[in-house]
Amino acid sequence: MDQLAALRALRRVVELGSFTKAGAALGVSHTAVSRHVSHLEAHLGAQLLNRTTRRFALTEAGQRYYDASRQILDALDAADRAAAEQQARPAGSLRINAPMAFGALELAHWLPPFLARYPELRIDLVCNDRIVDLIEDGFDVALRLTSKLPDSTLIARRLASSGVALVAAPAYLERHGAPRTPQDLLAHNCLSYTLAAQPRDWDFTGPDGAAHHVSVQGNLQANTGIALRAAAVGGLGIAAAAAFTVRDELARGELVRVLPDYAIAPRELYALYPQNRHLSPKVRAFVDFAAELYRTRRWD
Fold first, then answer.
1. Is 262 a domain residue?
2. What is the pTM assigned to this prediction?
């Protein structure tokens, strides 16, 4: 039995949730993957997977073995890459996923200097506001702007914080009046971001440090902050927007801040990448470039 191949097969099966997908990722048949896992179980004298016709799950012994073997594989992969990458320069295709607003308003502006530094790279940028599966969808790295990351096996590196601004068009406030406290928002048309954990639950910290929670209502919700910004500029209602998405509109007076004395928790910018790719030269170059950029740049 090739134990290393069997360990890699087990890892891919667990990560991808399928013998067929694991085989495709490893360049072998699903039968070969199943045989690797069976040989590993026979070698250990323990069942690693509970199988049914449609799904499988790690046994208790399988979970312990998988966790330990993953560390071994990561260390081995790291050693291989360390030897190969000492003289390596980032090259090839780098597939990036980013939120729509961040990709359009931030990332697209600093990709040119990044590519100027690494001319052997090719960027495949996919912008959307849904949560993608990096491994399943073949992404090397993803950028996330969120108040809380879900549990994941991905490596997460925090890059920066973005304040959140409550904004509305002057025309809207002239028609409906400006709220003075968070509770006043109950009488206003509030525009919601549907991909937030709780789209209509808005939390504030007052000037005295007191917490305020409001469950708002409105006639528009959207899965992209760009649409909400446009609706707010059009005078439809009040939106809670990442500050970098509305800085130009605030500067031009198309939007004004609402409840400026009440703070909303900032959103954190993270770079996420799979554990087995965290030392890839192209991923490392991209993440280090972004970290360097946002150490010296304020967006808000």
1. no
2. 0.65
